[in-house]
Design a protein that fits this description.
- The structure is a single chain.
- This protein has about 750 residues and is mainly α.
- The chain folds into 4 domains: about 250 residues, Tetratricopeptide repeat domain (Serine Threonine Protein Phosphatase 5, Tetratricopeptide repeat), CATH 1.25.40.10; about 170 residues, Serine Threonine Protein Phosphatase 5, Tetratricopeptide repeat (Alpha Horseshoe); about 70 residues; about 140 residues, Lysozyme.
- The chain is built from 41 helices and no strands.
- The longest helix has 21 residues.
- It is globular, with a radius of gyration of 30 Å.
- The relative contact order is 0.05.
- The N terminus is likely disordered.
Length: about 750
Amino acid sequence: MASLPQFLSVYLRPAARRPGGGRGGAALLLAASVALLQPSPARAAAAREPLSDWLVGLGDAAAALDRGDPAGSLAAARRAGAALSRGAPASRAALAEGLALLTAGRAAEAVEPLTEARRAAPAPLAPHLDLALARALVAAGRPIDAVPLLAAAARAGPGGAQREARWLEADALLAVGLLKEAAPRLEALLREAPDDPHAPGARLALAAAERMLGRERRAAERYREVARAEPDRPEGAEALAAMARWRSSAAGAPTLSGADRLARADRLLSRGRPAAALDELRAAAAAAPPAPPDQVSLLEAQALLSAGRHAEAEAAARPLEARSADAGVRRGAAWVLAKTASRAGRPEESVGWYQKVAASGAAIPGLPERRWRDLGDEAAYLAAWLWFDAGAWPRAAAALEGFARARPASPRADDARWFAAWARFRQGDRKGAARAFARLSGGALAEGAWYWQGRLAASPAEARRAYRRAVELGGDGWYAALAGARLRALEGTVEKAAPAAAAPPAPLSPLELRPGPAADQLHAAAALLGLGWRSAALAELDDLSRRGAARPVAAPLAELAAFAGDAERPFRAARDLLGATPRTLRWLYPTPLGEVVPARAAEAGVDPDLVRAVIRRESAFQPSIRSGAGAEGLMQLVPATAGRLATLAGAPRQGGGPLEDGAQNVALGTHYLALLVDRFGDEAPALAAYNAGPRPAAAWSRDRAGLPLDEWVEAIPYRETRAYLKAVLSAREVYRRLGGLPPDLDPARPVGAPGDGVAF
């Protein structure tokens, strides 16, 4: 890998040559600080005169800030300021000092050096310094002085600092009592970015402002809006508390209606909190005015189903399906009954309920229109697929082929044809299965169809031809990996590991940075990284990567983010904008957290490449991501599971924060993966258990023990879990190849039955 100074010389040279715009200052800033992030004993030896002392001090300050040591950064910045105490060098040292103080929580002390640094800030850094100084002023109790700085940053060109400043400007206006100025700004921001992380807090602030301005009806609706939308977040709790304070001091204060409570329950259920949803439903029934009883009962049945309380869910749904006057409620109840009958092993009954759902077009209360309109097609598909799940192969083949004929435009038609072919395979009709897979050879499922034609081929020559076609079509995917393994077995070849000493990487090829806002934003990110201000640099890259303007600079963006130690943004840029090439392969398959993953994997006794592949599939390297089911962090752990794992490992969790910490999340997730591998004795069912839970995975493993790996994966009943295993195991093969290791995937290996062990 090239060094960071090499990266800067390749990618930033064209822009640094451009006249005007302060680019010369930016180039000097980068040369004086970013390069110094590279440790060098020669630098310390050369520090014998003021310029060297200044350079070494700045480099040490940036490096310390980057590694989270503001005290060390402050000491180094002050050494630099003492070495050259006037002019532009002094301003540069003051910038390092101010950032260190601000990071250390000493905001009042940071104001003076940041003010000095702002006077001589290079153009790419101006809005970021305005934002930093404004933060220091607000924290020091001087929001009125922060307002013009935030206004200036908010008017800057597009970027992370500009977006952040717009939200903070409105907050500062509120803090100094300028409610009429703040309210329209907040309303505009909420219209433009309703899902921004600042939005819930902004809605709360706007509600308080509306009430102070005497707009009580609008304030009440704002509070109810936050309470409905954020039932499990601090903002939702604060909205409820604000409404309670209002009621204690004035008549006619807002309360939550039954419909509001129903909306909160629905949101909790969508976020994987069925127990909390059930509590909220009890409040919905008792509220004034109450929520419609049938809608409460339907959501209760859905919450019970989600909580795994299937018998109770069925008992709640049956009277609704039989007696409700609302056709949508009856349809929703039939959906719940189809699910519970399926889980109870009653396929005939489940098929009947799914057919009833498919025959109705009624809107189901609480479901978005797009979802309930699609439900008919999904139910018709499941009514056919259930026979496959039940092992009734002839009936499954006929039903699935019938679905595909009746609904050729369905997004599930190819899946129906696939499982029809598989049903013929499982019943031993090899010729019929081969014909069915052949009909899929030119569509979206072509690589899998070619692989299974190879498995069904009448001769080794036909098998080789089919496997080679699967490899050509499959890239780095599952079926290409399986086909490659089958080809090696047919040809009697053994893949050897790459030499330990890999060849040096090819030098980076220059990419022209055309003048424009995207190039300017990239320069700003590089300059921020050179200061050791990693969070601001990554925020700038994040803002750029999420906009259409990122495409022309996607490669240098990914390169710079990778040098910053980030895995998420290079992965996203390569996946969404660049595609798979030799240059982007390491961005598509990054190694997050450096040595943390290998260390935790070694402690747990699992393959580090398997852990990396799990992270890639679970979170796409986003450390703070949270799923609809409530799973958090890089390895997507549910907090309750994480708590039990932490206790087993002897490190109980404190609160909810650690799951966003990558190292903590990986430590717990790797420990859990190791427990699953120990129980199942095989990585494939262990991964199935990681995704779907140990209980269903154990049942599948017992029922299908002895099947070869490729058949075992195809026989997993849950579509999501099948896709999960294929993605993780194929990604693990790519990681092995990049690490110089031979392929490890053996599609013919039989998968054994599970043992005893972890069941949560």
